Amino acid sequence: MSQQQQLEHVGQPLLERYAGVVDELVKQLAETAVERDRTGGTAVKEKELLRASGLLHLLIPEEYGGLGGTWSDVLYITRRIARVDSSIAHLFAYHFVNLVTPHMFGSAEQKAFYYRETISRNLFWGNAFNPVELKVFATKQGEHYVVNGTKGFCSGATDSDYLILSALRSEDSSSFIAIVPTRREGIYVHNDWDNFGQRQTDSGQVTFTNVIVKEAEVLHAVKRSNSEFIRLREYLALLVLGQVYLGIAEGAFEAAKSYTRTTTRAYRKSGVAKASEDPYILKHYGEMWVELSSARLLADQAAARFDQAWEHEADLHGDQFESTIEAIILANAAATKVGVGLTSRIFEVMGARSTSSQYGFDRYWRNIRTHTLHDPLDYKLKELGKWALLDSFQVGDSLLIKQEDKTP
Q: Rounded to an integer, what distance in angstroms lies between the CA atom of residue 169 and that of residue 80?
C-alpha cells in the first residue's frame, strides 16, 4: 500500500485498510499451494510475497514506523492464510513471535532498535529458539560470547534476516537468549526439513560453529516489578499455532463443501438424486459446523484476552495472566481436536474420487497432524483437567491457583 493510499484510509480499521492486500496474498498462495505441497523445498518466493505485502510490519507500534496493529489482527490474517497454505501461515505468524522477543526479553533500547531495523530494512525473522533442544552452548570470551551446537525445528530460518537464538551458558547452564544475523559467519542453515506435512516451513536444523555474539545482541530479560509479561512468551507459540490449526480446519471444510456441491455423487443406496440431499452427509456437515463454530469462539476469546494482556505489559497481574493462559490452551486444544478429526472426516462427505492426488485434499490432514505432534494434545487435556477438577494449573515452575468461582 502506497503512502498516498495510507493517507486516504486514515481512521479506517487496519484490517479494512489492508483487506485487498490480504485477499491478493491469499489468492496468490492458493494458486500454487497444491503443487508446492508436492514438491516441498524452501518458501523463498512466498516469503518475498510476505515482504512485498507490507504485512510483516503489522504488529510494530506506530511510534517506530509500524502499522500499530494488534495480535488479533495478526491472528486473523494467519488464519486466513492457513486456510489455503498452512506452511506460509506458520512462517508469517512465527515472524511475529520472533520479532517481539526483544520487546519481551530485551531492554527498551533493544526493543526500539529491532523494531526500527525491521521497518527500515523490511526484515523477516526466523528462529533457532526451540527450548527443548539443549544442544547449543554459549561461552563467554572477553567482551563477547562464542556459540556452538546444532538446533532443530528452526522454522523460518531459511532466507531470514535475523534468528532468535536460545542456548545454555557453558559456565552454569543458565538460559541464554540472543539475536544474530542469519548470515553471520559460522551459521549454517541445513534446509533438511523433509516431513510429510508443513513441507515449506523450513523447519530443519541450524548449526552454529564458533559464532560470535556481541554483548549488545544478548537479551537479558530486564527485571520488572511483575514478570508475568515475560512468561507470556512461553504460550505465544500455542496461541498462534492454534490459529493455524483452526485455519487448516476451515480450509478443509470449505474445500469439502465446494467438492460435495459440485462433484460428489449420491450413494447408490441413498435414495436421493444429489449428494447434497443425503441425510448422512448433511448430518456430518452439521456436526462439523458445530465443532468449527465452537473452536472459533474459543480462538477469538484467546486472541482478545492476549490483546488485553499485551497492552498491560509490566502491569499484567496474576488473575489476568491465568485467564489468558487458560484461554490459549483451551483454544489450542479445541483447534487440535477439531482439526485432526475434521481433516480426516471430510472424505466421508466427498467420496472415494476425492482421494485422487490431483486435488491434494490429504494435505490438510498431513499438515495438522505433523505439527500437532510437537505438543501432544493429551498433555494439554491433562493440565486442563487439573484446572477443571482441582482448581490448579502448572505453568513452568509455577503452580497457578484458580480464584474462587463466583458462578451461582
A: 40
Q: Please give the pLDDT value at position 407.
A: 43
Residue 343 has pLDDT above 70, yes or no: yes
The distance from CA 215 to its chain's CA centroid, rounded to whole angstroms, is: 29
Q: Which three cell numbers stand for residue 210?
A: 564458533
Cross-strand pairs, 207: 150, 188
Give SS3 for 136. Answer: strand
- Residue 346 CB neighbours (<10 A): 25
The residue with cell 551446537 is: 149
Asked if residue 224 lies in contact with residue 316, where contact means CB atoms within 8 angstroms, the answer is no
Contact 240, 78 (CB under 8 A): yes
Phi (first) and psi of residue 86, to 5 degrees:
-70, -25
- pLDDT, position 395: 61
Contact 304, 72 (CB under 8 A): yes
Which of 6-15, 98-107, 395-404 is predicted most confidently? 98-107
Residue type, 196: F
Question: Where residue 404 falls among pLDDT bands split at 50, 70, 90?
Answer: low
The one-letter amino acid at 359: Y
Which residues, at least 6 apart from 168, have a Cβ–Cβ distance to it below 8 Å? 134, 136, 137, 138, 174, 175, 176
**CA gap 3, 326 in Å, rounded:** 41
233 CB-near residues (< 8 Å, 6+ apart): 101, 104, 105
User: Using CA atoms, how far apart are residues 397 and 294, in angstroms rounded to an integer?
Assistant: 31
pLDDT band at 399 (very low <50, low <70, confident <90, very high): low
Residue 368, class by beta-carbon neighbours within 10 Å (0-12 exposed, 13-18 middle, 19+ buried)? buried
Amino acid code (one letter) for 348: E
* Nearest by Cα to 211 from 173, 235, 193, 185: 185
HSE, side-chain direction, 13 A CA sphere, residue 35:
5
For the ranges 116-125, 225-234, 269-278, 383-392, the one whose mean pLDDT is highest: 116-125
